[in-house]
Amino acid sequence: MALLQIAEPGESTAPHQHRLAVGIDLGTTNSLVATVKSGAAEVLVDHEGHALLPSVVRYFPDGRTEVGRAARLSQSEDPQNTIVSVKRFMGRGVADVARYGAMPYVLEDAPGMVRLRTAAGVKSPVEISAEILRVLRVQAEASLGGELVGAVITVPAYFDDAQRQATKDAARLAGINVLRLLNEPTAAAIAYGLDNRSEGTFAVFDLGGGTFDISILKLTRGVFEVLATSGDSALGGDDFDQAILAHWRRHLGLASANQKDTRKLLMEARAVKEALTRGAEAHASVELSYGQRVAVALTREEFHGLTDALVQRTLAPVRRALRDAKLTVGDIDGVVMVGGATRMPHVQQAVSLLFDKQPLNNLDPDRVVALGAAIQANTLAGNRSAEELLLLDVIPLSLGLETLGGLTEKVIPRNSTIPVARAQEFTTFKDGQTAMAIHVVQGERELVADCRSLARFELRGIPPMVAGAARIRVTFQVDADGLLSVTAQETTSGVAASITVKPSYGLSDDEIADMLKAGFQHAESDVAARALAEQRTEAARLLEALHAALTADGAALLNAAERASIEAEMSAVKSALGDIDHRAIKAAVDKLSLASEAFAARRMNKSVAAALTGRTLEEIGGS
Amino acid sequence: MAITLTDRAANHVNGYLAKRGKGVGVRFGVRTTGCSGMAYKLEFVDAAASEDHVFESHGVKVFVDPKSLAYIDGTELDFVREGLNEGFKFNNPNEKDKCGCGESFNV
After folding, report:
1. Which of A20, A230, A512, B78 could hold A317 in an S-S bridge, CB 3.0 to 4.6 Å?
2. Contact yes or no for A448/A439 (Cβ under 8 A)
3. In a domain, B106, yes or no
4. A7, A15, A144 member nearest B85 (Cβ)
5. What kind of fold does domain A395-521 have according to CATH?
6. What fold does the segment set A525-622 form as a domain?
């Protein structure tokens, strides 16, 4: 029988409708999955009671895979087929990966992303990550007793679009519907309930096993914005173990320890480090090969002395991030601690000293990201009331399209919270026009030439109509991950075309800032440019219409003198088109309108007369 | 008759209430939906309604509206673990048959 959880008052779901959703922290070293049960977020454990799944995948020649603890144990035995830290390869090419230094893997170049050759064949980082995610999904479904509606998966705040897309692809491959990707620091902030405040600026200090990240988040009306990130990709809790090991080697004459002994000593060093988080002194005794037994001891004071330099190394990136965000420590309202290594008392102390406030550390720092993701997943899956739904992201730059005269028409203004959808109607410019080019652009400037081109596509098969009669509805939709789809549909015939793009692809925060700044700086000249382009478009439209009218009815309705005067004004407009003053063009256009007024009236009368002699409206409209 | 909780169920309810930081107990009731007639509901209670029947078992207050009570009187709430899945289960003497999943039932 299905087992019930306790719901919030008035929020019981109908039977079979409670939507199972989880948060997944897909980490470099360990991954974990969490969910909200009876109102509280909790990490789900496997059959052995472990919450952390080592992010390690081993491939066997028969195609079998092993994920987690067992795979991690075989790391030294079968390094080439045991993939650790695959997260570093996500969305990365061979050249990027080469910078990580020596690795036991056979790398292959492939378009877009590096591949790894294993005993079970060539695998992409996406496939390898999918193995980890699949294990988490199966574990979650076993725990929750049903199929998942979806998951929120966390990614580092600095992940670019290629890395984010790779993460989504891996989830899809693992049979997981991604409700959205969430930045890890944002997830940690949510776990601490910081999103319930109205606003504030927070620092998230994340010292993991092998990496250090610092993020500065700004919360305004439920929206977290990442102001700055910094860190050290080669600094983590493992370095503290190494420092203890190096100390022992120096003082115990173990300089020549073999690989196996070194591993044993390193495990003991880690145990000592963890013991020193709780106590002032720790002892260990290690039996080395050849039966030699060494006793090692360390006091907290000694340990802090050995590793103080490592702690100090975290502070420079913190200062850099603050500087990038143009903030000082006094502006920070709260500091969130993430990552197992932040348990160390001297790390806590250094952080509280720097920020001059006690960091938030009452949640398990290894789990806090997964817990926050679970809370977000629960909300997104629809298990909570709608008004509590968080809007977590905004689009950084306006999205729009090119209209006549090289002008941008903004469809979604910047700072709109996502997901968002906006539609706008456009029409044809020429009689009988059957296709329309849609040019999607991003930026704050008025002229397309000053904005960033995102995509172009064409809507074909518009039924021939007079200029301005077709109704083309263009819909811009940005999903929760910032993916933009643009659809153009002619409403009378239903013909449609669409395209999907990633607006932020390849844009750094600096470039976005520059584009915004340019938009402000050029505001005045942009207004003039828009006026000019609009006037030119208006003139071209009038010339086009008159030209068509003259061809059709010029001979019948105008005498030679009348026709000559209209044509004279038409050439005046044509030569004014080159003018950079929009007022000059407008003057010429006005004169032409005046000169052609009588002609237009006569055409109108002719049409009415024709209608009365039994022609259909469509024929008149189409003439 | 009354609504009772097993020791395990009471411990879990108290644990969840403590984590949630507010609430006076749980509401146990039925709703007329589901594939087999009626469905159980279990919710936190922040404020009792005046018509509620209140039962206390192992230090946990259980609130039941009078309409629901007719269908569930005598039920014992248990907290069980089935494999990795754990949650509340109901031993209802009024239940005649239930849907395959047990989320809804008939009296």
Report:
1. A230
2. yes
3. no
4. A144
5. Substrate Binding Domain Of DNAk; Chain A, domain 1 (2.60.34)
6. Substrate Binding Domain Of Dnak; Chain:A; Domain 2 (1.20.1270)
B39 CB neighbours in chain A (<8 A) are: 14-15
Residues of A with active-site annotation = 25, 87, 184, 206
Does residue B66 lie within any of the structural domains?
Answer: yes
Distance CA(A272)–CA(A7), nearest Å, equals 43
| Token representation of residue A196 | 């319930």
How far apart, in whole angstroms, are the C-alpha atoms of residue A572 and residue A585? 9
Which residue type, as a one-letter code, is found at position B61? Answer: K
Q: What is the pLDDT of residues A290-345, one digit of tens each?
A: 777 888 889 999 999 999 999 999 999 999 999 988 999 999 999 999 999 999 99
| Alpha-carbon Rg for chain A in angstroms | 33
Give yes or no for a contact between A367 and A236, defined as CB atoms under 8 angstroms apart: no
User: For residue B80, what is the domain's CATH number?
Assistant: 2.60.300.12
Mean pLDDT over the full length of chain A: 84
Q: What is the CATH number of domain A1-192+365-384?
A: 3.30.420.40
- How many residues are listed for chain A in this entry? 623
Question: Per the structure, how many domains does chain B have?
Answer: 1
The answer to whether position B75 is within a domain reads yes
Six token digits for residue A113: 């992303």
Among 3.90.640.10, 1.10.10.10, 3.30.360.10, 3.30.457.10, name the CATH number for the domain at A237-308: 3.90.640.10
Interface membership of A193 toward B (CB under 8 Å): no
Portion 17-46 of A in contact with B at CB < 8 A: 37-40, 44-46
Tell whether ipTM is more than 0.85. Answer: no
CB atoms A5 and B88 under 8 Å: yes
From residue A245, give the alpha-carbon distance in Å to each of A272, A387, A620: 10, 53, 92
Cross-chain residue pair A3–B26, CB shorter than 8 Å: no
Residue partners of A522: CB distance under 8 A and separation at least 6 = A445, A450
Q: What domain range includes position B73?
A: 4-99
Long-range CB pairs of A282-285 (<8 Å, 24+ gap) are none
Angle at B74 between CA B73 and CA B77, to 5 degrees: 105
| pTM of the shown model | 0.61
User: B84 and A47: CB-CB below 8 Å?
Assistant: yes
The tokens for A51 are 């919450």
Distance from the Cα of residue A192 to its chain's centroid: 22
Q: What is the pLDDT of residues A466-496, one digit of tens each?
A: 888 888 888 888 876 677 888 888 888 888 8
